[in-house]
Amino acid sequence: MSGDDLRERIQAQLKPQLPKRFYRQAAARPLPESAFGVVLDERPLRTPGKAPLALPAAALAAALAEEWEQQAKVINPAVMPLTRLANTAIDRIAPDPAPALAEIMPYAGADLTCYRADGPASLTARQSALWDPHLKRISDRLGAQFITTQGIGHVAQPEQTIAAVAAWLEERDAFSLAAIHTLTSLTGSVVLAFAVADGGAETEPIYTAAHVDELWQISQWGEDEEAGARLAARRDEIAAACRFLDLLDT
């Protein structure tokens, strides 16, 4: 056996084995108490934590059913982002939202949109154009006035701003909080997550705002393949979280 053959065999053995598709059809179904679920051959789907998959919106249940229906020979959670978010909401956040809140709140004190480049002028203008409208919205809606600065030196945010963001987050249900947590982590910005959750901002402007520095650099010097793949994957994750929030309101 050649070295390449041995390496391929080892890699195949280390690769996680995905479960085979065991059902003929996935479909959305109404549940008691105004909830909605997914059935696999009429058997109700449960979360990895064995909880009933009870969803607050029919459109979300239909989208999850479609994810399950699209699985071919195996069930691959990596291509089922809406299902992953729903499972996170039910199994991890609903029983105790405190850990998720604790992970989101530091971004309120060090939000991406508050730290501007020293230059060049074309980049700083782009940052202002993409970030300032979102800062204005959260200020108008919550009374949360964020302080911006140039450079990476930390600037403390007003206590009133931190408190306003915390109060808004504490009012979110587990499903919204799951998507907000994902968006905040992906973008480095609770301000941009707020723009989606409160204002219905769409994927492309949020993705562009979150990656303004990288996209500006690409416009100047071009894009390498690895960076392009990483940004594309990040965009897909942002799109899934945006869609999840949109489906909650449908």
Assign the CATH topology of the largest domain. Answer: ATP12-like fold
User: What is the total tally of β strands?
Assistant: 5
CATH superfamily of the largest domain: ATP12 ATPase
Strand order of the largest sheet: 1-2-3
Global Rg? 21 Å
Top CATH class of the largest domain: Mainly Alpha
- Helix-strand string: HEEEHHHEHEHHHHHH
What does this structure look like?
- α4 packs antiparallel against α6.
- The strands form two sheets. This protein has a three-stranded antiparallel beta sheet. Strands 4-5 form a two-stranded parallel sheet.
- The chain has helices spanning 3-14, 58-69, 81-93, 98-109, 121-142, 159-170, 174-187, 190-199, 203-210, 212-221, 225-248, and strands at residues 26-31, 35-40, 43-44, 115-116, 149-150.
- By secondary structure, the protein is mostly helical.
- The chain has two domains: 3-77, ATP12-like, CATH 3.30.2180.10; 98-248, ATP12 ATPase (ATP12-like fold, Orthogonal Bundle), CATH 1.10.3580.10.
Mind sketching the topology for me?
Layout: H1 3-14, E1 26-31, E2 35-40, E3 43-44, H2 58-69, H3 81-93, H4 98-109, E4 115-116, H5 121-142, E5 149-150, H6 159-170, H7 174-187, H8 190-199, H9 203-210, H10 212-221, H11 225-248
Parallel strand pairs: 4-5
Antiparallel strand pairs: 1-2, 2-3
Helix pairs in contact: 3-7, 4-6, 4-7, 5-8, 7-8, 7-11, 8-9, 9-11
Quick structural overview:
This protein has 250 residues and is mainly alpha-helical. It is built from 11 helices and 5 strands; from the N terminus they run αβββαααβαβαααααα.
